[in-house]
Design goal:
- By secondary structure, the chain is an alpha/beta fold.
- The protein has six helices and 14 strands.
- Strands 1-2-3-4-5-6 form a six-stranded mixed β-sheet, with helices on one face. It has a six-stranded mixed β-sheet with strand order 7-8-9-10-13-14.
- The model has no long low-confidence stretch (mean pLDDT 97).
Length: 212
């Protein structure tokens, strides 16, 4: 069974997820930890539970989701993977990071690219990759059918959706991604979003105001 541990990091209150299973292997999704205290908070949990991080995977590459990638790559000696269509977003972060107060942002190297239809594997766990653009051109989500959840990034929130006014965003594309990818998951699947509290597919299909 997969354990999903949530950390809320940086001034954007971004949700960083640490997933681990009974083997002790773990992956870090969307590490937004920027300062030393935040990195240490994540590291302390990993040490306390005797975990072995094996990979950093991102739903997309906006600044609040990539602030901790370089530090964690270096600390654990693990690869970082991203969808290729989001590489330009990652490369752009250094040009505006100081405007948001992140003057020491370090751009991470991408070790490999992930594609929709593939799987992310660690320990005894497999995550299916969905392609859900609209908030970002290469946005993906990670589905675990065994434990019935999806790590959705900034696509679908409780009673809301991701913003589409940033470079590469498109409102119609985002709505299509939610209808055709997220809303085709079973209603009881938990949605762990990039911000705010979790929700589930059925609740959003019935109540999300963007789909009335």
């Amino acid at each position: 069974m997969v354990q999903v541990q949530t950390f809320v990091f940086n001034p954007f209150s971004e949700n960083t997820y640490l997933l681990h299973d009974e083997t002790g292997e773990a992956i870090i999704i969307d590490p937004g930890c920027y300062d030393r205290a935040e990195v240490n908070e994540l590291a302390a949990y990993i040490e306390e539970h005797g975990l072995k991080p094996v990979q950093i995977v991102n739903t997309h590459a906006h600044i609040d989701h990539v602030l901790g990638v370089a530090a964690l790559k270096r600390k654990y000696g693990i690869p970082f993977v991203l969808h290729k269509l989001d590489e330009p977003l990652l490369r752009a972060v250094k040009s505006y990071a100081s405007n948001y107060g992140f003057s020491t942002f370090e751009e991470p190297e991408i070790d490999s690219f992930i594609r929709e239809g593939e799987t992310i594997e660690f320990g005894n766990t497999s995550l299916k990759i969905l392609f859900v653009p609209g908030h970002a051109p290469g946005h993906v989500a990670f589905v675990n059918d065994a434990d019935r959840f999806v790590i959705g990034g900034d696509v679908l929130f409780r009673m809301s959706i991701g913003r589409t006014d940033l470079p590469g965003g498109d409102h119609g594309t985002l709505l299509k991604s939610i209808r055709e990818q997220m809303f085709t998951l079973p209603d009881d699947y938990t949605v762990y979003a990039g911000h705010m509290e979790p929700t589930n597919i059925g609740f959003e299909k019935r109540n999300n105001p963007f789909f009335k």
